[in-house]
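Weekly puzzle thread! Below is a chain. First person to post its structure in token form gets bragging rights.
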Amino acid sequence: MASKTSDIHLKVQLDKENVPTKIHWSAGDGPNGAKEAEAKAFLLSIFDKDNKDTLKIDLWTKEMQVNEMDRFFFQTLRALSDTYFKATQNKQLAVDMQRFVQYFGEQTEILKK
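Winning reply:
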């Protein structure tokens, strides 16, 4: 039995065309405590236990600039390769993923070549 639960809240404001205009989030264990914070984008992936399939929600606001999206993806890909290694201990594939992250960073000019 779990000794603790933690809720994560997402609030998305949409325009008439259902395009996100504002994204707010909060989490009791988050860096701001339960205080709501604004975001420009979020990616949510959930692995369904029964269907063994990934469900995902990818949203970003109208204000999200391409260079911000590049940085967001660079940081996300880097974190995913670290998470993959922690979860599987598959060093070779994690290193291969990091190589792509390096390439991505250089191509988007987040990193210097």
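Puzzle host: Confirmed. Bonus trivia for everyone else. The longest strand covers residues 20-27.
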